[in-house]
Structure formats: C-alpha cells, structure tokens
Amino acid sequence: MIVSGKLTRKVTLVGVAVSKGARAAIEAAGGSTDAPIPQPKPKREPKAVLAPQPQTEAKVGQGGRGG
Fold this sequence. Notes:
Structural class: little secondary structure
Largest sheet: 2 strands, parallel
Radius of gyration: 31 Å
Distance between the termini: 79 Å
Order of helices and strands: EHE
Number of helices: 1
Number of strands: 2
C-alpha cells in the first residue's frame, strides 16, 4: 500500500504489505497492520579469488601410438 495525502481514520490492514511511510501514517492515525517490518538485506561477502595454479605442460608427440 502506498499512502498519499492524509489518513484521518483508524484502519487495520491484514495481509497487505505497506511502505515505511504508509505504516507511519497508519500508526499515527491509531491504526495497525500485521505486515512484517522490512529488514535490510544482509550484505553479501565478495567471493574469494583463488590464485591461478601452475599447470604442468604435457609433452607433445610422446603418445602411446607411434608409427
């Protein structure tokens, strides 16, 4: 629910998400809402960058099939 203007009556909202401003206006008018108070999302930690592993060089021309 988005509030615009003034709320002059006590209202109770059930099962409806409200913004912080709408919640403040509803509670200031004596109303209530059962919507959970939004919590900030936890910050994700950056992924660890692994150092490149040295690769062993494969010998070319030393295969099992010869001719």
